[in-house]
């Protein structure tokens, strides 16, 4: 545990275990706490798990200006170089999954295998983005079906106690910028998610790593979009986690853990 200077940023990192290196990449407005159980399971499997928190997340201070996947990728590569990691397995969630895809595309020799959970290639991949210019016609149908499901569950949800926002709780507890800065981070993330990424499906053919695309049947990323990602990567596998939302790691932890561990064991 500690901080590693990458460029102008001091990134909080944790390295645990021994054996083959594995990089764990957290999601947007998440910290390492979100994937801690998954990381501990992988350490138990004999991996040396590397994980760090991007600026504005967890214990890493925020930076001035907008967020960018290109900047985050450059920082990721700098982190790998600092540790001398030439080839490793990568497990990423949401924004971390997008970075995993970009790393595997840009430096294919560096990624042995990739698990990308709930990634999207562009804004149209979200289930709520049915009016995006390149959103397929089926997106509106899927969105309407989900809206009907939500309406059926409205009475139950209204009477139930609201789920605590664990990631906000982690942010408030961990951030060196203080709890009040969380709204500024979220505003920058919403701007990022609206405008980026813009990944050409044809470019994913450059990925040579064994790849598992994971998403949920109630994900904010459409199921057909996850299928598109998997179909665009040579020999990629696809798994849809049932009864789960975008936060599939928290919704179905045992199933997600099994899928990841069994996939990596086949490397």
Brief synopsis:
With about 270 residues, the protein is an alpha/beta fold. The protein has helices at about 35-45, 70-85, 95-105, 140-150, 155-160, 165-175, 180-195, 225-230, 250, 255-265, and strands at about 1-5, 10-15, 20-25, 50, 90-95, 110-115, 210-220, 235-245.
Question: How would you explain this protein's 3D organization?
Answer:
The chain has an eight-stranded mixed β-sheet with strand order 1-2-4-3-5-6-7-8, with helices on both faces. Strand 5, helix 3 and strand 6 form a beta-alpha-beta unit. By secondary structure, it is an alpha/beta fold. The chain has one domain (2-122, 163-265): 3-Layer(aba) Sandwich (Rossmann fold). The relative contact order is 0.16. The protein has helices at 36-44, 69-83, 95-106, 138-152, 154-159, 166-174, 182-195, 223-232, 248-251, 253-265, and strands at 2-6, 9-16, 21-25, 48-52, 88-93, 111-117, 210-218, 237-245. The protein is built from ten helices and eight strands. It is globular and about 45 Å long. The protein starts with a strand and ends with a helix. Pfam families: Abhydrolase_6. InterPro entries: AB_hydrolase, AB_hydrolase_1, AB_hydrolase_fold.
List keywords for this structure.
single chain; 267 residues; alpha/beta; Rossmann fold; eight-stranded mixed sheet
Order of helices and strands: EEEHEHEHEHHHHEHEHH
Lateral strand order in the biggest sheet: 1-2-4-3-5-6-7-8
CATH superfamily: Alpha/Beta hydrolase fold, catalytic domain
Radius of gyration over all CA atoms, rounded: 18 Å
Topology, number of strands? 8
**How many domains make up the coordinates?**
1
If you consult CATH, what is the topology? Answer: Rossmann fold
Helix content: 40-55%
